[in-house]
Design a protein that fits this description.
By secondary structure, this protein is α/β, with parallel strands linked by helices. It has 15 helices and 15 strands. Helix 3 (46-58) packs antiparallel against helix 11 (286-302), helix 4 packs across helix 11 and helix 12 (304-324) packs parallel to helix 15 (395-409). The protein binds pyridoxal-5'-phosphate (PLP).
């Protein structure tokens, strides 16, 4: 299959991008790597590492507390990072951006702070990452909130009609994976939000796999909450973002409070600060804040549409190759609906064995259930191999992957 060059990042730009990632030049064990495990964690460009090093070497102090030169510089840099992330997501105000540890913390924050109770219901889908499933199961067990599942269509697409039928005035929140880490499918978030809002329900999107790879504008989507992780979008690990509509954040109580969340306190009372501070308890991961800001800038420079098209074009090439060798692909049949992720099995071969054999050629993928155990259990599938792409991956890497897979497939 010929790749459509117009949909790819041009070769000269791709070369420049790859030059920003030392591991792509240095390889591992003296051999180049093909890194196709981006849904788990992306590589980081030197710009992000440099920005974080600058914090540690040039102004390693606290933000918002100390009023000396170093403290002021951190305060300024963190504010700048918050503003960059707000623009990256299309938020109305910088104060709608809460720095968290990761997507998981953002979802837990909403599940604890919304104060849902018995008589209320929450809807999630049938292919949620554990991070957007377990918090609702816990809430259901603790508070009697009803937890309902919307099942996908036979082609693994979102069932909008079924969803509309499920909606009633008990449903207070719809919390869905925006782009699935299982198969790369992106659900029709705009239409979902419209239906949910018509029924006065809020919508939270788990954006761990969408924000790094495609245009996301929370205001256009009209989403109420949106969570993401830095480590999947060229940023550091241990930092994430929760976007929340300001009017909602103002009304919500934090689930964790302490230093940096209060204006004042006495022995028996306290007055909380406004969002986002009231949700950012304790001394923060300033290097992480600065690093995720730099990562967002990097993605903006390349262009989100361009990244999305590039990954999907590579996915077409890889999916076709895998189908030709008798592979079965998880998710919608049309590759256009599967972004930059291809999850697959080859009959007669174990998915972990495939990953281990690929690793012998320094081709790195993930195998197993990808933290979506519930879907695999429901479908009685023990697991699969997942190749997940990003902006630095090339056609040559896709060919190396397919050549290695062709050899592995012969072992059946
Ligand atoms: C769709 C999705 N949601 C949530 C998560 C959890 O992200 P984190 O572990 O960074 O909180 C992941 C991680 O793989 C994911 O892919």
């Amino acid at each position: 299959m010929l790749l459509n060059g117009a949909r790819m990042i041009p070769n000269d730009e791709l070369e420049r991008i790859r030059g920003d990632f030392p591991i792509l030049k240095n390889g591992v064990g003296g051999k180049p790597i093909v890194y196709f495990d981006n849904a788990c964690m992306s590589l980081r460009p030197r710009q992000v590492v440099q920005a974080m090093n600058e914090y540690y070497e040039e102004y390693p102090a606290c933000a918002g507390r100390s009023i000396h030169k170093l403290g002021n510089k951190v305060t300024e840099k963190v504010a700048e990072a918050r503003s960059t992330v707000a623009k990256f997501l299309g938020a109305k105000k910088d104060e709608e951006i809460i720095f968290t540890r990761n997507t998981t913390e953002g979802i837990n924050l909403v599940s604890r702070s919304l104060r849902l109770s018995k008589g209320d219901a929450v809807i999630t889908s049938d292919r949620e990452h554990n991070s957007n499933l377990l918090p609702w199961q816990l809430l259901s067990r603790r508070s009697g909130v009803e937890h309902k599942i919307i099942y996908s269509t036979d082609n693994m697409e979102f069932d909008l009609e079924g969803f509309e039928e499920m909606m009633n005035n008990k449903v207070k929140l719809v919390s869905l994976v925006h782009t699935s880490n299982l198969d790369g499918y992106t659900l029709p978030a705009g239409e979902i939000v419209k239906i949910a809002h018509e029924h006065n329900a809020l919508v939270m999107l788990d954006g761990a796999q969408s924000a790094p790879h495609r245009p996301v504008d929370v205001r256009k989507l009209n989403a109420d909450f949106f969570a993401l992780s830095g480590h999947k979008m060229l940023g550091p690990s241990g930092i994430g973002v929760l976007y929340g509509r300001y009017e909602l954040l103002e009304k919500m109580e934090p689930f964790m409070i302490g230093g940096d969340t209060v204006q004042n306190s006495t022995y028996d009372s306290h007055v909380l600060l406004k969002p986002p501070e009231k949700f950012e308890a304790g001394l923060q991961n300033y290097a992480g804040d600065i690093g995720i800001g730099e990562a967002a800038r990097y993605i903006e420079r390349v262009g989100k549409e361009k990244i999305e098209r590039h990954e999907n074009e590579l996915n077409k090439f890889i999916s076709e190759g895998l189908l030709q060798m008798g592979g079965s692909i998880v998710g919608p049949k049309q590759v256009e609906l599967r972004g930059g992720i291809v999850s697959f099995n080859i009959d007669g071969l174990n998915f972990h064995d495939i990953a281990i054999m690929l690793d012998e050629s320094n081709i790195m993928v993930r195998s197993g259930q990808h933290c979506v155990h519930s879907w695999f259990n429901a479908h009685k599938i023990p697991g699969c191999v997942r190749a997940s792409l990003y902006l630095y991956n090339t056609k040559e890497e896709a060919e190396m992957f397919l050549n290695a897979m062709a050899e592995i497939a012969k072992l059946r």
